[in-house]
């Protein structure tokens, strides 16, 4: 139990921390309110000058046609860079692995760290390009159906690149994981397994797990800010360009899903920790 003095000291510390952060928080809230008011007023003024539906349709068709015809080419370029680098990284690491087995422990650790960074960079590039290619295919598919100026050849190229992306990304990830398991025998899991991520994390050491958890929490925070920004932007665009409420609804659904899953997982982990503590210390009420 904490003493009364300790509790008073903590209360004073809380007051000081809140006082220090309150000024910045209030300033941010005031700026957000002013920005929201400006955007709302500007949108109301702007919508009087033209037909919102026609403006949105015209703008969407121009952007969609240009993007639909241009993105397939970027898919080819981006895929060549990402998959080419990943293939080179794996080949180089495998060639060095044959020599590294004769290294002493210190030299082997240095090589292993360098190899992990090289392969990690390749895997990140593959992930980025995979997401980009998925998006690009969706744009080209939509443009091919609704816009007359969309080239059928460009859509066919986007379709081919989508198929290539799916098979190439899975194959290269499998090859990378298999090689990492050879270098680090304690690692386990197959890319084809639906529970691969869970098994892989469980096979990592404590420091690696901490890095994964910190990176995941950082991604969670960034996604929160992104959802807030998108919600604001789509709300304004729904009024100004009459883009419907679907974008706001989708962003809100993703935002809510993320918040609920985070809370549910936190509750589950807390319950598991309490049960583990009771099992280790024993329940004083049990006989």
Tell me which oligomeric state these chains represent. single chain
Order of helices and strands: HHHHHHH
The portion of residues assigned to helices is over 70%
Q: Show unreliable segments.
A: 282-287
Helix-and-strand structural type = mainly alpha
Count of structural domains:
2
Q: In percent terms, what proportion of residues is strand?
A: under 5%
The whole-number mean of residue pLDDT values reads 81
Q: Based on DSSP secondary structure assignment, what is the total number of beta strands?
A: 0
Query: How many angstroms separate the termini?
Result: 27 Å
Q: Helix count, per DSSP?
A: 7
Major beta-sheet overview: none
Rg, please?
Answer: 26 Å
Shape: flat
Key features of this structure:
287 residues, mainly alpha, 85% helix, flat, disordered C terminus
Describe this structure in words.
It is a single chain. The chain has 287 residues and is mainly alpha-helical. The longest helix has 49 residues, at 52-100. The chain folds into two domains: 51-204; 205-275. The model is unreliable at 282-287 (pLDDT under 50). α2 (52-100) packs parallel to α4 and α6 runs antiparallel to α7 (246-281). The protein is flat. 85% of the residues lie in helices and 0% in strands. The chain contains seven helices and no strands.
